[in-house]
Write a structure and sequence with these properties.
Length: 86
C-alpha cells in the first residue's frame, strides 16, 4: 500500500490476508527482493554466503490510524533529515 526506500531501512505499509503468517510474508519479501538485487548487481558483486537484509524486522498492526501511518512513510526522508542519497 505504501513504501519508501531509505539508505538504511525500508518503511512499508502492507495489507495481507490473515491466513498468511507475518513471518512468512516478511521472509518472502526479503528473499525475493534479495534474489532480484543479486541478479541485478550479480555481475559486479558476488552475494553468495552473504546476507543482504538484516535478520530482524519491526511489525505493527494499523487500524483507524492508517492514513497517518501512510503519511509518515511518505514523509520519512524529511522526518529523518536525510536527502535519500546512498
Amino acid at each position: 500500500m505504501e513504501g519508501h526506500l531509505m539508505s538504511d531501512h525500508v518503511p512499508m505499509g502492507l495489507a495481507m490476508p490473515p491466513k498468511h503468517p507475518v513471518a512468512w510474508v516478511i521472509g518472502f519479501l526479503k528473499g525475493k527482493s534479495a534474489i532480484a538485487i543479486a541478479r541485478l548487481w550479480g555481475k559486479e558483486r558476488n552475494f553468495s554466503g552473504e546476507h543482504f537484509w538484516a535478520r530482524g524486522y519491526a511489525v505493527s498492526t494499523v487500524g483507524f490510524e492508517l492514513e497517518q501511518v501512510r503519511q509518515y512513510i511518505r514523509e520519512q526522508e524529511a522526518a529523518d533529515g536525510t536527502s535519500g542519497q546512498f
